Amino acid sequence: MDNWVFEYLRLYFNKEAQEKMLAAVDKYLEWNQKAVKQKVKLDKEIDYFGGQVSFKTAAGTKGTVNVTFYTRFFSQSPSRHQFLIRISSIKTDSYNTIEINQIYLDYDQVSKLRKAFDIKSHRKNFTKIIKERVKKATDFQ
């Protein structure tokens, strides 16, 4: 395994993966509430699902590959619990594999992530924005 510097690393989720990520986040939030209340520690896998990663290294290697995202509930202490996201290895070619560090998110960050993956909320907001713009456009005619 080599150390890689990325110019970019983008994560892609289809609709099914978005729904699974949202469900995993909701499970984390539920477990977090219980673990804080009961003052316990827990280290448990939540779910895993497929997606894609698009990347370009500083050396110029680039591509888009299928990966597996693994989600996990991890307690640092009885009062601090994190949501972990691990991405499977990225095979760039016949010889090189990139290992991505796990992503550790605290409660506040997970709450923001939940909003980002809430497809229904985005559709509702998008529809509202379109209606407002159409109304403004017709008001000037």
Describe this structure as you would to a colleague.
The chain has 141 residues and is α+β, with helices and mostly antiparallel strands. The protein has one domain (6-139). Helix content is 40%, strand content 38%. The protein contains 3 helices and 7 strands. A 5-stranded antiparallel beta sheet has the order 1-2-3-4-7. A two-stranded antiparallel ribbon has the order 5-6. Helix 1 (15-38) packs antiparallel against helix 2. The protein is flat. The model has no long low-confidence stretch (mean pLDDT 85).
Quick description:
With 141 residues, this protein is of the alpha+beta class. It has one domain. It contains 3 helices and 7 strands; from the N terminus they run E-H-E-E-E-E-E-E-H-H.
Which secondary structure elements does this structure contain, and how are they paired or packed?
Blueprint: E1 6-12, H1 15-38, E2 43-57, E3 62-77, E4 80-87, E5 90-91, E6 97-98, E7 103-105, H2 107-117, H3 119-139
Antiparallel strand pairs: 1-2, 2-3, 3-4, 4-7, 5-6
Strand content: 35-45%
From the structure provided, what is the oligomeric state, counting identical versus distinct chains? single chain
Structure annotation, total helices: 3
Task: Work out the radius of gyration.
Answer: 19 Å
Tell the overall outline: flat
Strand order within the widest sheet? 1-2-3-4-7
> Helix/strand/pairing class, anyone?
alpha+beta
Helix proportion: 25-40%
**Largest beta-sheet characterization:** 5 strands, antiparallel
Order of H and E elements: EHEEEEEEHH
> Count the strands?
7
Taking pLDDT < 50 over at least 5 consecutive residues as the criterion, the unreliable ranges are none
Average pLDDT for all residues: 85
Number of domains: 1
Distance between the termini: 63 Å
